[in-house]
Amino acid sequence: MAIDDIKLVSLDVDGVLSEGKIVVLDDGTEMKEFDVHDGHGIRLLYRAGLLAAIISGRASKAVAIRAKDLEIEDVYLGIHNKREAFDEILGKRSLDASEICVVGDDLPDMPIMRRCGFAVAVANARPEVKEIADYVTKAQGGHGAVREVIEKILRAQDKWADVMARYLD
């Protein structure tokens, strides 16, 4: 576990940033719910000089909109081989795999979780995913798990006090 070296947090969506339910309306519109605490956590991550990425097996307009709102630049949707997107991020950002935290919940996340520096499974993850994780969140996906991970990283890197300073004035 190399939490001190993390420079980028890669997130799955369904089951991690959202609770994993997909609502499809009669007109085909897809809806997802996102936790505002997770979103603010991503902003804190950026404020501390770290980055976020999304690698999801599903293509979703709702996710694209949310990612843009959160200013996440590295967004890979509809990805069937998450290793390829992971490798692209490594090259684009000039990072080593050990500098990435991957947060996942299901089997497709496992290949990149095995390669990263800090693998995280959310509380509602599949048992096989939890087995390979360096850390399992207390919160479930879509209910503050991403914020929990970000706070853990920022505290471990002694960056928490700096991001908190603006709220203590």
Structure commentary:
By secondary structure, this protein is of the alpha/beta class. It has a single domain (3-163), classed as Rossmann fold, CATH 3.40.50. It contains seven helices and eight strands; from the N terminus they run βββαβαβαβαβαβαα. The protein has helices at 36-47, 61-69, 82-93, 110-115, 127-132, 145-156, 160-164; strands at 8-11, 23-24, 30-31, 51-55, 74-76, 100-104, 118-121, 135-136. It has a six-stranded parallel beta sheet with strand order 5-4-1-6-7-8, sandwiched between helices. The protein has a two-stranded antiparallel ribbon with strand order 2-3. Helix 1 (36-47) runs parallel beside helix 6. The chain is globular and about 45 Å long.
Radius of gyration: 15 Å
Low-confidence stretches: none
Indicate the structural class. Answer: alpha/beta
Question: Helix segment count?
Answer: 7
Largest sheet: 6 strands, parallel
Q: Indicate the overall shape.
A: globular
Level-1 CATH class name: Alpha Beta
Q: What proportion strand?
A: 15-25%
Can you tell me the number of structural domains?
A: 1
H/E series, N to C?
A: EEEHEHEHEHEHEHH
Count of DSSP E strands? Answer: 8
User: What's the architecture, going by CATH?
Assistant: 3-Layer(aba) Sandwich
**Which strand order spans the largest sheet, edge to edge or round the barrel?**
5-4-1-6-7-8
| CATH superfamily membership | HAD superfamily/HAD-like
Helix content: 25-40%
Instruction: Give the N-to-C terminal Cα separation.
Output: 35 Å
The overall pLDDT, averaged over residues, is 95
As for the CATH topology, it is Rossmann fold
